[in-house]
């Protein structure tokens, strides 16, 4: 019999890659989707099978991490071997605006799932993965960060995830559950949400390059992150549930770069050389050179990146750098996709989409608004 997995957050970046990965491994995959006023399954449409067909392997259930009864019903119906709790209000900046909701979903959501497993008497059979985060380290106490580095969360999101982390450890220790935390550092892909900084950059600069927008507005350009590819990271989520003993793991590349560096790589991938003038809120990215043959109307001297303090956070996490030695030792972790390939893949996907939209617009068709309101 094939194994059965239940994924919360299946419609998100990681959920979609994990579902693909598990289906390839022969799993029966169940996902929880939220009711929304518009379809929100775009990231998994390509793997969704028509339920009218015989023998589908992917099933979707309506539910919500704020709704314990829906979670218990789904866990009871599905009787999963493995649960991956990836669902979250995952945007750090938004968590300052919606702190209570973020706590409800990200902290209590994890508790609700763990309790449903326990109340249904499945604690000896279900394996549970909690999507923990490098944001737990926040104001870093040690560089690089390991599984033993003390936490110092710096946002309502990170504080909520701290609860999720500890309640997972607590259920493991109290009830002997196979439950573990993946402390994952930032991971990106063409499926990354449009308002996270990497995707905002690849999408935003592609739109400027093709004439859809004039300028890309960003926040803290000095911020340092350890960026990997989501496809690599979901493999480790699965691997953490295949061990003899449940343990928490840092997953990272061990290399960090600045937001400014990511802008620079993206511009280069598009055929533009940028120089950065000014400091802080006055900082701008100016076109220095456009590669011969690059199909754009941009000219040297054009200002195409500006800092907008609207994107500064009330408390910032300035630097994150992971030390994934434990995962390398016990799980054989080594990232397969480097940051250069990650940027190239993201730029290619966003450039194609921008070219498509520019073509439509230039031929008189209405196109959707681009910006984050
Ligand atoms: P996304 O924001 O892309 O996806 C979040 C998912 O959670 C979506 O499917 C979303 O549904 C769902 N969701 C949101 N609110 C609820 C709710 N109330 N009930 C049920 N589902 C909900 O995040 P990622 O895929 O990037 O991240 C996956 C997990 O890993 C998250 O928990 C995130 O906090 C954590 N994480 C991510 C890292 C990263 O770099 N990507 C690093 C470390 C941790 P919908 O599509 O309807 O919005
Ligand atoms: P992060 O990712 O907060 O690390 O959380 P994000 O890409 O949002 O920010 C990274 C850094 O870039 C700076 N920044 C900007 N960020 C955004 N979103 N928009 C901007 O315009 C901008 N300009 C500069 C930020 O200040 C920050 O320092 C992500 C999420 O996926 C979490 O769910 C996850 O837990 C962590 O990664 C690990």
Automatic annotation (TrEMBL):
Give this protein's Gene Ontology molecular function annotations.
GDP-mannose 4,6-dehydratase activity
Q: Which reaction does it catalyse?
A: GDP-alpha-D-mannose = GDP-4-dehydro-alpha-D-rhamnose + H2O
What domain of life does the UniProt record list for this protein's source?
A: Bacteria
Can the keyword NADP be found in this entry's annotation?
yes
Q: Where is the NAD(P)-binding domain?
A: 6-346
Q: Which InterPro entries match?
A: GDP_Man_deHydtase (IPR006368), NAD(P)-bd_dom (IPR016040)
Function of this protein?
Catalyzes the conversion of GDP-D-mannose to GDP-4-dehydro-6-deoxy-D-mannose.
Q: What is this protein called?
A: GDP-mannose 4,6-dehydratase
Q: What is its EC number?
A: 4.2.1.47
Keywords, in A-Z order:
Lyase, NADP
Q: Which family does it belong to?
A: Belongs to the NAD(P)-dependent epimerase/dehydratase family. GDP-mannose 4,6-dehydratase subfamily.
One Pfam family named in its UniProt record:
GDP_Man_Dehyd
Which cofactors does this protein require? NADP(+)
Record organism = Tessaracoccus palaemonis
